Amino acid sequence: MGLKKDLVVYQVYPRSFKDSNDDGIGDIKGITSKLDYIKSLGVDVIWLSPVYCSPNDDNGYDISDYLNINPEFGNMRDMNKLISEANLRGLKIIMDLVINHTSDEHVWFKKSVANDPKYKDYYIWRDTPNNWTSFFGGKAWDKIGDKYYLHLFSKKQPDLNWHNPDVMEDIQKVMKFWLDKGIYGFRCDVINIIFKSSLENGKKHFVLTGKEHYHQQEGMHKILKQLRKDVLNHYDTFTVGETVMVTPKQANDLIYPENQELDMVFSFSHMEVDQISNKWFKTKFRPKKLMKVLSTWQEEVYWNANYLENHDQPRSISRFGDDKIYHKQSAKMLATLLMTLRGTPYIYQGQEIGMTNGDFKTMSEFQDVETHTIYKIAKKLGIPKSLRFKMMQKTSRDNARTPMQWTKQGGFSKVDPWLKQNPNTKNINVLDQEHDHDSILNYYRKLINIRKHTKVLRYGDFESILQSKSIYIFKRFDKKNEAIIILNMSRKAQKIKSICEGKLLISNIKKNEYNCVLSPYETRIYIKEISHD
Length: 533
Ligand code: NOJ
Prior knowledge:
Elements: E1 9-12, H1 28-33, H2 35-41, E2 45-48, E3 52-53, E4 65-69, H3 76-88, E5 92-97, H4 107-113, E6 125-126, E7 141-144, E8 147-150, H5 165-180, E9 185-188, H6 218-230, E10 238-242, H7 248-255, E11 264-266, E12 275-276, E13 278-282, H8 287-300, E14 305-306, H9 316-320, H10 327-340, E15 344-348, H11 369-380, H12 385-395, H13 430-434, H14 440-453, H15 455-459, E16 461-467, E17 471-477, E18 482-488, E19 494-495, E20 503-507, E21 517-518, E22 523-528
Parallel strand pairs: 1-2, 1-15, 2-5, 5-9, 9-10, 10-11, 14-15
Antiparallel strand pairs: 3-4, 6-8, 7-8, 12-13, 16-17, 17-18, 18-22, 19-21, 20-22
Residues 58, 61, 98, 153, 189-190, 242, 311-312 line the site of 1-deoxynojirimycin (NOJ).
């Protein structure tokens, strides 16, 4: 993958990043106005969540026109400007490629419903539904007229039929359209479930019945190879697949360079360490579980796409850190973890200032389709109201989607935003942190810079040294250098046996660098023989 291994990615969720025209919704001009800020972090690539035309049932992941911009976000001129202004600053943009499904308002679906000869098989139709269930809960089939169509997500997101060669042809056109505009590549949405091998009933499963018929199928590998051969290989591109329920072996099958499929994949095992059976049932976070999963992926996978949060996950500081007393320390500890694991780091907007979960007080404050669907299902299951609400507060995807906190007043928009602003913007915001050289924001900048200048942190091998109840120590090494990363993942001071004799590169606590007692959430990186390249 060569130089791609050097890159750091910043994810922008356009709806919540910056509103330029005061309608309460983030937009493309808003993003362009913040490019200098993004650049100042030291990142190289922006992953832009969907900006295409969409009725927004699933905030843009339901696309009604792949070749046009959602008017709420601006127009194609704004998009062209964003790409060129980003490129001027040496920033590349990857876009979301959502090809498991479209919106039911896409013209392909409308024509499919109308039985148009070219489009009738663009989607998956059946006279009687099978027993598959949807990722958002409930049945995966809905009826139009006397026919049922498959939707693995909301009923406004019908699944495309990848057995149809015309679908392949049309999606290739979409990819070329954007690559020709200067886009660097794609984040491929739920890519390992796009090919349905059969439509037989699935084995009954607590959450997802039917998955053995569409998860990680041979047909999916074939599609990816073809997209690579016909499209991606004709450009200089970067691809990351979102791969649900994936194992390290399956991840490697998708990313080994000789397989010619994807550059890297997002996996989910580490997002499951604080849950029982499914994400809505959270349990106490035990750091050791996270260490174990991360170490396994570090050891077994060819190249990881490392992340601790994104637009679908609660904020990492509220989940794996302490968003109150040790806010700053734990945010920096998590930053150190993210930036020192082997693989490409992905920072989600607001993570760099330690944004926390949202402050939702009633169900009506949530906007997310998944949150409302699951809430209703939980009601049917007899889960008491207060517990149901607590589950949503902890787990809703809206936790990550609250408006970006630019100033004490919010600074996202001059009007009420589409989703409730977290009042803690008073204390957690970009402007304040710009002025504080010890802030989380400036710590991220330092870390990114250190990574850029420290080869062993980018390319070195990984070895786990200690995984105790709350201390994680690992090593990154190559022939010349060794970096030791020490993380106290708890709010208690912890004693460690010995300390590395290398040079202390960075820490989130100011004290004697060879002290064997780690303060709450303390982190340190030591290095022996730094190689500045
Ligand atoms: C994964 C996306 O990240 C999520 O936001 C979306 O709801 C589903 N895929 C369906 O597209």
